Amino acid sequence: MDQNPEQTLNSTVKAWVNNTVQAPVDNTVEPPVDITGEAPVEKWNDVREVHFQTKLSAAMLDIASLQNPVSEDSSQLSDTMQDASLEGPFGLGPLVFPSLQRFNNINYFLISFCILSLSQGTISGLTHVSTGNFEKDFYLSRAEKVILTISYDLASLLVAILVAHYGCKGSRSKWLAAAALLVGLASILFAVPYLKYEIVRPVQDSEELCIDEEERTMPNCEENIVPFKSEIIIFSTIGQSLQGIAGMPMYILGVTYIYDNISTYMAGIYLGIADAAHVLGYGLGYAVGSPNLRPSFNHSSEEEVNDNFLLWQFNWFVGFLFATLLAWFTFFPFLCFPHRLPGAHKLKQQKEKDPLAFYKKLKNMKYGYNLQDLFHALWNFTS
């Protein structure tokens, strides 16, 4: 039982060595292996983490599915706010007078539009009557007659699509103000020849009928009787072209402006009144110009030819000047009307609830300002 003291010391040393050397090996190397691979607590944590990620991904999918309706609603709201922001007061830029806001409605816009249509109709009637005299008195060639006849329609054709495409993007009332300015300017161009030139002078005996004894047309006869024929034809052609250009903003943008600011069941009445104003103006112009009709100076007797032709020319000038003042009277009212009249966005919402069959096809289409969008709009319109 008794052990050698040296053996006891050796056993003590060995025990100490085993406790101090082997224990750190077990704590530093083996425990991490057990924690990462075998501990059930950590496995439970992994399961909880996966379950949490599944819920999070499902929630993200739900949010993604809700993004489209929210964006559509927000876009509709932004469009409504934009339409409402276009409704402004009656004024010229920053100059807004409260006393003039009584004119900021569709009724006064219709009155201004009817006055402008009346003016253009009057000019058309006067021009139609005067062109007949030109053809008799000026010995117009076939080409000159064609130019005077188609200049209005040709100018309208060239600008109609451009006015419709770009005019609807801007302020349509400002386009109508420009149209009023052009109508008055065209009327002045029609009136200038009657004030500046001697349209037809009395025929001399040697120039009677411009035909010689053998019934052949005398050379240079036209230049002798009407020395300013070329200038007069140029003024008339330019005036007709300006009339055609001015008519497109009126009958494209003006009509749509009225329709957008009035209810559907009243739109036909307002548009009919606007169209009737032009017809009335044409009749007025024809009635004013008819008393100035007379037998051609080139085919009248010597007793009928006198100095009254100056008074005759002055009457034509007064008729065109009246039409000019009538058109320019509407220039400033059209400048003062806003982009949209108050309440237009509410009318738009009501019309969108029950659109016409034609508008159902085009209501969701949006176009830009470049030429590519223009051709795309034409294709959708015709297809």
TrEMBL record:
UniProt entry keywords in alphabetical sequence: Disulfide bond, Membrane, Transmembrane, Transmembrane helix
Protein localization: Membrane
GO molecular function, one term: sodium-independent organic anion transmembrane transporter activity
Leader sequence residues: none
Bilayer-crossing regions: 106-126, 146-168, 175-195, 232-253, 265-289, 309-337
Recorded topology in the membrane: Multi-pass membrane protein
Gene3D superfamilies: MFS general substrate transporter like domains
One GO term (biological process): sodium-independent organic anion transport
PANTHER family linked to this entry: ORGANIC ANION TRANSPORTER, SOLUTE CARRIER ORGANIC ANION TRANSPORTER FAMILY MEMBER 6A1
Protein name (database record): Uncharacterized protein
A GO CC term attached to the entry: basolateral plasma membrane
Source organism per UniProt: Mus spicilegus (Mound-building mouse)
